Amino acid sequence: MKLSPLVAAILVSVSSTSYAFDLQQPANNSTDNLVWTGHLSPDTDTVVSAMLAAHIYGGTATVPEKINPESEFVLNYCNAEAPRIESNYADFQVGLVDFNQVTQLAPTIDQGSIVAVIDHHAIGGSPINTPQLVAMDIRGWGSAATILADNAEKLDVTLPKHLACAGLGAILSDTVVFQSSTTTDYDHHYAEKLAAIAGISDIEDFGQQMLIAKSDLSHLSADTILTMDYKNFEYGGKKVGIGVAETLTAQQLIDRKEDLLAAMKAHKQANELDHLFFSITDTKDKKANLLWVDNNDFTVIKAAFNTDVEGDMLTLEGVTSRKRQIGPAIQSAIESL
Ligand SMILES: [Mn+2]
């Protein structure tokens, strides 16, 4: 059957506009003005995932804010350059890596410009809300970098040494050197593959050096420590901030508790948060030391961890993951109060 010109024109226009960003066949995508970015308060997985995505799919890697000392260590170790800091995302097509919450989105990103999300977090809370179809690849793996390593392999994209090394650093960071309960077999599998490409024979040693590099926080202000690895959430209509400091030398921070509490109080007020929590996460002895600001927060802590609390800090043995342990407990407590 021969199509009338009108029908043919409609079909052409439909087929040329109906595809979302194509994560399976990158050649189908226009990468003009495409940038990749992760969440605010970027961590190593967010930084490196943007770099991996730009290498695999085209476009430019960016970060929405300055990178943290751990990421600096990893990029330095890998001889890789940090992505540029983008202060204005208007006029770009944007691919998101390592998050899906609007509370963690750079404020200049128009949600209508988001074309893809590659992530490993729950969609609960306040996910992005887009008028158009967005390509999504969300898997319950230990890091977004692991998902991107898998995509690179399936798409036959070779990773250069420095990116393989940085990818390995991102997996080690998010899984706390495979100690976190979020670690999957995929993370081990791709960590080994990336290490082989990067020529790194001792993965554990790289991981330990990274943990040591991020542990010394003595030169940083309490406010910097609070917001360095920090995420905003919306749980049950409440604005909730959760900051984390992962450190091998937790006592160093516990000794600065009064300082941290003062910084938390100021941060909670300035950002008009309903709740604010901070965990001094002891990566050596695998426990979280939780701090909160006021009685409202304390009520949530008691409900979340179902425990009698004495003093102004709650130590939770075996708890190291905001994503898997601290966040979900706080979310369900707030939603049930
Ligand atoms: Mn991540």
Automatic annotation (TrEMBL):
Cofactor or coenzyme needed: Mn(2+)
A GO molecular-function descriptor: inorganic diphosphate phosphatase activity
SUPFAM superfamilies referenced in this protein's UniProt entry, alphabetically: DHH phosphoesterases
Enzyme Commission code: 3.6.1.1
SMART domains (UniProt xref): DHHA2 (SM01131)
Record key words, sorted: Hydrolase, Manganese, Metal-binding, Signal
Leader sequence residues: 1-20
InterPro entries for this protein: DDH_dom, DHH_sf, DHHA2, DHHA2_dom_sf
Catalysis: reaction(s): diphosphate + H2O = 2 phosphate + H(+)
DHHA2 domain sequence ranges: 207-334
Stated name of the protein: inorganic diphosphatase
Protein species of origin: Photobacterium pectinilyticum
